[in-house]
Every structure is written in C-alpha cells, then in structure tokens.
Design goal:
It is elongated and about 110 Å long. 44% of the residues lie in helices and 22% in strands. A hairpin with a 4-residue loop joins β3 (61-67) and β4. The chain has four helices and seven strands, in the order αβββββββααα. It has a four-stranded antiparallel β-sheet. It has a three-stranded antiparallel β-sheet with strand order 1-2-5, with no helix packed on it. The protein has helices spanning 2-34, 132-136, 157-171, 175-215, and strands spanning 37-44, 48-55, 61-67, 72-76, 86-90, 98-105, 116-121. The chain is α+β, with helices and mostly antiparallel strands and 216 residues long.
C-alpha cells in the first residue's frame, strides 16, 4: 500500500512539474523563442561576403547554429550578443551554405527540446559578376554578385554575352531612336485603324453621292 501511495505521489509531482514547466515555457520562453529572427544578408561594398544575422535573443534563451559547409555546431547565449543581436560573417561564397538555428530555453525546468528551428541559406557567388561586360553594365540584373537564375534556366557564356550586348545597346539608344523604334515596331497598330476609318469614310461619301445622284 505504501508503495502504491508513494508511486501516486511521485506521479502527481511529475504531472505538476510538467504542467508548471509548460505554463512557464508558453507564457515566457516560447514566445521569445518564436520571436527570434534569422537573416542571410549579402555584403557587397568593398568586399563580398555574407552575414548571418540572428536577432531578438533574450537572457531566457540560447541558440545553436549548425553550418552544413563544415558540419560545425556553435552555441551562442545572450551574453554573446550585442543587445540581442548576433552577426556571423560567412566568407565562403562559391557554394550555397545552409544554416540551421535551434532555439532553446535556459530557464530551469524548461530545458530540453528545441523550441524553434529556423533555416536560412546563402547564395552561390555569380562568377559572371567579374566579367568585363558586367563591369560595364553593373545595373544589369544578371550581373548581381549573387544573381540566382530560375530553376532549369541554363545559359552559355556566348548567350549571356549576346544578351548583355543587346541590353547595352538599348541602354545607349537616344530618345529619338527609341521613338523611331517604337514607331517601326507598332506603326501597323496605328495604320490599320486609320485605313479602316478612311475606307468607311470613302464608302459613306460614295453612298451619299450615289443617293444624291438618284434623287437628281
């Protein structure tokens, strides 16, 4: 009987502890964990690299950051941050690299499983960024240092060169040349309605004159 009572007490304490933990995690820590933001930001000023920015950390939570490039996991606490923000510089840009951030509680009674998992990735460096044609046309979309083509799109260097030459040609076309090109391209759209109106007008005049001749 004593064993049964003892077991009942232990089981009751377990559930009470579990419910207490759940309440604390839900009301305080879980919300903080869900509020953590992770961004992969490309830096293209003097140097080209990525920054993995993790923000909204609080003293009640800590994170682990897994990088698949070198298969390392690093733990960061609020003390490692600057006002809740951690920035990790990423310098290997020639392949996509995936980061997995897991958020944990360090509040007593609520430690254990991850409360939030966030994944981000860097983009592969665009090698055409260094081409002379891109240096001459830095605003061209496909010359962005981290341009990512749509899935399935493949383009040879020759095709890219022809495309950017056409883009460069359009960029350097004068205003009047553009107007002339528009007229050449769309003149039929204006000419056809004019011809139709002219034909209708001629028919109306002819019918009018014909009727007038009959009456005379």
């Amino acid at each position: 009987m004593k064993k049964i009572i003892f077991g009942f007490v232990i089981l009751t304490l377990f559930f009470v502890n579990a419910l207490t933990c759940k309440a604390v995690c839900n009301d305080n820590v879980l919300l903080a964990a869900k509020d953590v933001k992770v961004e992969a930001i490309s830096m293209t000023d003097d140097l080209i690299y990525y920054v993995i920015k993790i923000s909204n950390l609080t003293p009640d939570i800590y994170i682990t950051v897994y990088e698949d490039d070198n298969e390392t996991t690093t733990t960061y606490t609020y003390d490692d941050s600057e006002n809740g923000v951690i920035e990790i510089e990423h310098w290997y840009i020639y392949e996509k690299v995936y980061y997995t951030v897991n958020v944990y509680s360090n509040v007593e009674g609520c430690t254990g499983e991850s409360l939030n998992e966030i994944r981000v990735n860097t983009k592969k460096f665009n090698e055409r960024y260094g081409y002379v044609s891109c240096e001459e046309n830095p605003d061209y979309e496909k010359c962005d240092p981290f341009y990512e083509p749509p899935a399935g799109e493949e383009q040879t260097d020759e095709e890219f060169y022809e495309e950017i030459q056409e883009y460069n040609k359009k960029q350097n076309t004068s205003f009047w040349d553009k107007v002339s090109n528009i007229i050449k391209e769309y003149y039929l759209y204006a000419l056809i309605p004019i011809l139709v109106v002219t034909i209708i007008y001629v028919i109306i005049i002819w019918v009018y004159k014909s009727k007038r001749g009959d009456t005379e």
